[in-house]
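Curious: explain these tokens?
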Amino acid sequence: MNSEIVSRLEQSLQGLPGVQENGAGPLASTSETQLKAELSSDEVQVLKAYRRLSASKRRSLRDLLG
């Protein structure tokens, strides 16, 4: 389950132009809308919390879950 969450997080962030360290970018609101249609509310909450993390905390979380 943890590896699936990490995989979804990484997929959601790959290929988004202009994504900054906090996960915000020009497509952030569009991607949020698309994600809400595809993910459960719990998954959306996890993704939002992940995007608020600093880059070093994201790496640490991936290492912990991976």
Remarks:
- Residues 40-66 form one domain.
- The CA atoms of residues 18 and 26 lie 6 Å apart.
- Helices lie at 2-13, 28-38, 41-52, 55-65.
- The chain has a mean pLDDT of 75.
